[in-house]
Design goal:
The complex is a heterodimer of chains A (383) and B (198). With 383 residues, chain A is an alpha/beta fold. Chain A has helices at residues 130-144, 157-168, 187-202, 219-233, 236-242, 267-280, 285-297, 308-311, 332-344, 368-380; strands at residues 16-20, 24-25, 31-32, 35-42, 52-56, 94-98, 151-155, 175-179, 318-324, 348-354. In chain A, the strands form 2 sheets. An 8-stranded mixed β-sheet of chain A has the order 1-4-6-5-7-8-9-10, with helices on both faces. Chain A has a two-stranded antiparallel sheet with strand order 2-3. In chain A, 32% of the residues lie in helices and 13% in strands. In chain B, strands 3-2-1-4-5-8-6-7 form an 8-stranded mixed β-sheet, sandwiched between helices. The chains are: A alpha/beta (383), B alpha/beta (198). The interface between A and B is medium-sized, with 26 and 20 residues.
Chain lengths: 383, 198
């Protein structure tokens, strides 16, 4: 099939960044402009521009969905789903993944420089919402010449964006895949996020968010926030299987021993500390505050007079929802709420709860059933 | 699509459904009937299925199927939102078959209900002479591992229909793969298919 020659166009390819004038009117009423968006594209748009898939990333994710991360060198965070021979395949699809606004991987966020003052925004950056992230993605698609998405796909917070897309732009979305996600943040979800935020703000290096000048960042607070959150991404059974009560080996004692002190005696402690420490090297503490805030404000029904079904009445999209049986962060019941609303609105909806030992993180890990469902759903629209 | 022939009761339903209809298949399995209706009659089909493996199989053939339980999740579908609601070989596995059929008739303008006839003579003989719950070609499970928790006969179902004031728009009876007569269906039919409305 004829395709639009994307290789000659500087808008397309890996590690792209664009400054869009906007301004973008945010849910808070504030205006954001200019809006920087860092993104990647994979594959080529076909002649009728009908093969575009937008991938939305999770809280601490980024635009490097299927290419090596420039800071960590690790492969793209969803290489199991996106790539050659995968359900989302650059040989067939034109794939876009953008860093959400509020984040710190090249899109406008608290760490980016305010063109008016010449200094980082820090906490002067406006509070954003999931819908604001989606509107910024729509601005990017306008810039790329993309009118319609054959699919928008996301897991966790990415699923929140994917589900918001057809509510804001019903004419631009043909299908929507929402994995391990929810239509609103629960009290428990908000509570865990508040623990993380308080850990950051209690770090004396946070200093009201103005820590960019000397580079002394609130890494202890951010690490604790990550450790607490990371527990919610795993299942109790998964933790038990991986670590149990096993002790951390040391040079003087390879099998480990209790120190009768407060070192990381248990392997699970050592693992969490490692998760926290490696996270602070790649993520900005203020971005963590802003993005968790956006997730806490998220409640699609609230934006539609309390009726989730009403949010989807203008949409003709096909929906596919997937939950995991061991995910207690966004459990199956949350996906069912969405499915019931879609049924009530008459939308074409599919839903399946898959079995996995990995808890919430299952959507990022090896799960052949997930790939099979996503692949079949994407192909099903073109049967 | 798959060339495997449809199960006889499903083939019968597929023949009867009007082209272009909106159909909800409750207990749709891997979506065989839905796929046939979509491919042959351009039917807008949706499914409800309890087994995750079946749902994954149906979704991966491009069908809109929701994992759920007929006893619980039908409540979320709006009134009269489908031309047909179909319940094939599932009635006898539900907790409250009467309420499930009520729901089918609320959601669909008409409802197909198919079920194995537990009064077939083979089962009667097995119980009468053997004193054991029947294990037959169509009912291959033993009493302790069968999913069939409400054993219904053709006459039982007719009595329920009469009691609730539902209307029978069609009824078909199967013996093996072939249709059989209405006469003495309660004794000779292995399967029954009813088309009902309120």
């Amino acid at each position: 099939m004829a395709s639009i020659p994307t290789h000659e166009d500087s808008r397309f390819g890996l590690r792209r960044q664009v400054r869009l004038n906007g301004p973008l009117r945010l849910d808070s009423g504030a205006m954001l402009g200019p809006v920087d968006i860092a993104y990647e594209t994979y594959g080529a748009m076909n002649a009728d521009r009908s093969n575009v898939i937008l991938i939305c990333h999770a809280l601490t994710g980024d635009q490097y969905v299927a290419s090596d991360h420039p800071l960590t060198g690790k492969p793209g965070w969803w290489w199991r789903m996106v790539g050659e021979g995968k359900p989302v395949d650059p040989a067939r699809h034109f794939i876009v993944c953008a860093n959400v606004i509020g984040s710190c991987l090249g899109s406008s966020g608290p760490a980016s420089v305010d063109p008016v003052t010449g200094a980082p925004h820090a906490m002067r950056f406006p509070v954003i919402t999931i819908a604001d992230m989606v509107r910024a993605q729509a601005m990017l698609l306008d810039h790329l010449g993309v009118d319609r998405l054959c699919a928008v796909i996301g897991g966790s917070m990415g699923g929140m964006q994917a589900l918001t897309w057809p509510t804001l732009f019903p004419d631009r979305v043909e299908s929507c895949i929402v994995i391990a996600s929810t239509a609103r943040h629960s009290a428990q979800n908000i509570a865990f996020h508040e623990v993380g935020r308080q850990a950051i703000m209690a770090d004396p290096h946070w200093r009201g968010g103005d820590y960019y000048a000397d580079g002394v960042v609130p890494s202890a607070g951010l690490a604790v926030a990550r450790m607490a959150a990371h527990i919610t991404y795993l299942s109790e059974a998964g933790l038990t299987e991986k670590f149990g009560r096993r002790l951390q080996g040391r040079p003087e004692n390879p099998n480990g021993a209790k120190t009768f002190g407060f070192d990381a005696d248990f392997q699970v402690e050592s693992y969490l500390r490692h998760q926290g420490l490696s996270f602070v090297e790649r993520f900005d503490a203020n971005s963590y505050l802003y993005i968790t805030r956006a997730m806490d404000y998220y409640d699609i029904a609230e934006d539609h007079g309390g009726s989730l079904a009403r949010a989807f009445t203008a949409s003709k999209a096909r929906f596919c929802l997937v939950s995991f049986d061991t995910d207690w962060l966004y459990p199956t019941a949350e996906s069912r709420v969405i499915v019931h609303a879609l049924n009530a609105s008459g939308a074409q909806a599919s839903f399946v709860e898959l079995s996995s030992p990995f808890g919430h993180d299952a959507f990022l890990l090896e799960c052949p059933e997930l790939n099979r469902v996503v692949d079949g759903f994407l192909r099903g629209g073109r049967a | 699509m798959s060339s495997t022939p449809l199960r006889p009761d499903l083939a019968l339903i597929a023949r009867t459904v009007a082209s272009g209809a909106r159909v909800l298949d409750v207990g749709c399995g891997d979506g065989a009937l839905m796929a046939a209706l979509r491919d042959a009659k351009q039917v807008d089909a949706r499914g409800l299925e309890i087994d995750a493996g079946n749902v994954a199989a149906a979704v991966s053939r491009g069908l809109s199927v929701v994992q759920g339980d007929a006893d619980i999740d039908l409540a979320w579908y709006p009134d009269q939102s489908f031309d047909y609601a179909i319940l094939s070989q599932t009635l006898q596995t539900t907790l409250r078959p009467d309420r499930v059929v009520e729901e089918l008739l609320r959601i669909g303008r008409q409802a197909f209900v198919s079920f194995p006839n537990f009064a077939h003579w083979r089962g009667r003989l097995s119980l009468m002479w053997g004193g054991r719950m029947p294990v037959t070609r169509l009912l291959p499970d033993t009493w302790y591992d069968t999913l069939n928790i409400h054993h219904v006969t053709v006459d039982d179902f007719r009595a329920l229909v009469k009691d609730r004031g539902w209307v029978i728009d069609g009824q078909w009876f199967l013996k093996g793969d072939r249709e059989t007569t209405h006469a003495n269906a309660n004794l000779f039919a292995e399967h029954a298919v009813f088309l009902l409305r309120r």
